[in-house]
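Would you mind writing out a protein's amino acid sequence and the numbers that encode its backbone to help me picture the idea?
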Amino acid sequence: MAAIPADSGLYQVLALPELSELPRFRQSLEENYLEYVRRCDPVAHALSDARRVGKLFGILRWEGFFREATGPGWVLADDAGHFKDPAPGQGIQDAFRQVEFLVPAIIGAINRSPSALDEALAGWARWRDEDAGEHYWLATDLGKAGLAPAVLPEIAQRLYERGKLDSFLDLFNHRSVPSKVVTPPMLAVATARLLARGGCDRRALLGEVGALIAEEVRRKRLARHPHYIPLETSVDADPTEVKDDDAGGLR
């Protein structure tokens, strides 16, 4: 879940249960929603004297995407050009980050010529793709149903033991990227530790590691040959029924 203090004394709480819990939620949405979010003590404390002031909204299916970021005289920032799994709660951060880099590009070229502006915006678009690419897949992985591959908690434990857990937390504020945290050496060490410890299904473990490596290769290939989702096909009329695309809709 994600709990976010908002303006005017409001407090927003997002619940991200497993899809298998959907039938239970539908039986009594508000009751089961509150039961779910109150499992977290700080959230329960924050809601102890609170009252609901708006509707409960849900998204069952959605589509992550990258759109072409710019063209002659136009540019798309934030969710208009790029949307990813909400699990890490990075949407508003992405908006501020993109605009922080976009404004200087516009100011530096807008008084020169239309072609200079288009060139500056194209440079910003390349930066956006590079800056957002790995975090798109991080969000996808965090939002997947089920348990994480066993090597990932093992890597986090290893970082904690070495006093370097901040390098994992830095993934959520764009101070780092997954490829600098889940490195090949870290993956190899985590796999070796799990195998040496015993008590695990060795074949399943090696299968998970192999799948992680194969998926990383696939993602790098997609990044080299981007395919953007067109604007006119990415919006669904019903906000609670946004299409899911596990292919990532990434470019």
Summary: Residues 233-251 have pLDDT under 50 and may be disordered. Residues 2-47 form one domain.
